[in-house]
Amino acid sequence: MNLPWIQAIRIIQIIFGLIVVGLTAYVISSFYDWWSFSSTVDFLLFLGCWTAFVATPYLGAAPIFFPRLAHRFVIPGVEVVTMIFWFAGFIALGAELPPPRYCHYSTCRSLQAVTVFGAFEWVLFSVTTYFAIIDLLHHRNSGESAQKTQHNAHLGV
């Protein structure tokens, strides 16, 4: 996937992941309300760490610096899993939050921001997943046809 704009999206994904880590860590560290013990908030903390420290650095660096680690099925697999995780995370948190008119304290507002950043992350990963799958299908189609024609050419010689 040699698209130069994809690296800018990777940087934005890492920044949004770090924002989610910071906001969810703040909510978890505030022991005075029930959000501190929510498994949805814990999942979003994991997801922010997964995005900022594991998935996005791998997706951005492996094809450039470690091409042997950038397997053509692993890249779309990581993209799809991360996209599904973000979708599940921001929808689950959005369903648990009270309406905005009842959200007047800092942890609730932080979780509203986490929901928005989670939705943006899902959109960004949807875009990069689409291009990863297109790249996989293009690579698969061109690789199979190239192998068949090359193999048939050697048989006739």
Q: Main traits of this protein?
A:
mainly alpha; about 160 residues; single chain; 4 helices; disordered C terminus
Question: Care to give the gist of this entry?
Answer:
Helix content is 80%, strand content 0%. The chain is built from four helices and no strands.
Task: Characterise the protein shown here.
This protein has one domain. The protein has four helices and no strands. The chain has helices at residues 5-29, 39-65, 74-96, 106-156. Helix 1 runs antiparallel to helix 4 and helix 3 packs antiparallel against helix 4. The longest helix has 51 residues, at 106-156. The two termini are 35 Å apart. Mean pLDDT is 86; it is low at 144-157. Its main location: membrane. It is found in: Membrane. This is MARVEL domain-containing protein. Residues 8-131 form the MARVEL domain.
| Share of β-strand residues | under 5%
Mean of residue pLDDT? 86
Major β-sheet profile: none
What class would the helix/strand composition place it in?
mainly alpha
First-last Cα distance? 35 Å
Number of helices: 4
Number of domains: 1
Identify the overall geometry. elongated
- Percent of residues in helical segments? over 70%
Let me know the number of strands.
0
What is the chain-wise order of helices and strands? HHHH
